[in-house]
Structure prediction request, 276 residues.
Amino acid sequence: MKLIRQGKVKDIYEQGNDILFHFSDRVSAFDVKMATPIPRKGEVLCRFGEFWFNTLQTPHHMIRVVDKDKMLVKKLKMVPMECVVRGYFYGSFVDRYKDHLGKDLPADFKPVLAAKLPAPVFDPTTKSEEHDLPVSREQAVSMGLVSAADYDYLEKTSIALYKKMAEIAERAGFIIADVKFEFGRDEEGKIVLGDSLGPDEYRLWIKSDWQPGRTQEAYDKQHLRDWLIRTGFKAEIDRLAQEGKKPAPPEIAPEIVQELSRRYILAYERISGRKL
Prediction:
């Protein structure tokens, strides 16, 4: 078994004609890999991926889960575009609203933090290990990331998958505010769902606690991002970014580590209906 790449949160191996994902307990935020692992996070990501691939009833690359934190998948030629769908007014969507996305929303939409959007918005980005950048349909096609027909297919498919996920999560008492899908082409050239789907790919809120106009309690790694903002680490990232540098990751506070692990596990068990 040959190590192909060590990503921010998972290690990717070549195993015969297939690929093995090893989901680690590593966590990243603001494009910085943290130094502190989150117990059982890898297991949750692997099991969540298995659950969604089996539940969404769409072509995908998963073959089977071979261990609690390992998944065997088919090789794909990945589409170099991340397919983000947003259902709520939150995150970087808020920061870019006036300059980039206002035209995509009705004129009477009130831009209140965490408000539900009139309809899910397709908001794709470039695919990068360093920093993903928003991309329009025209840009994606002109850059050669996808053809116009493929862009339209990915937009339609991504929004449909988001709606299915949102409905399933809502029945379990959660809101999926947004989600990132990745797709690739199989041996026959067909576009299928790839990579994985878990709390590193979507924002998850408790439905009963949802209140537009304020920051939401997150059951994903946003809880870590919020802590990094409070402690000033995000400001340090922004300062060093002007010099083309990144700061050394901090040790995550024990209470944040414990709470992140608890929230990851709780979200999986409630949404999947299965015990870890």
Helices lie at 41-55, 92-101, 137-142, 148-171, 222-230, 233-241, 254-272. DSSP finds seven helices and 14 strands in the chain. The radius of gyration is 18 Å. The chain has a mean pLDDT of 93.
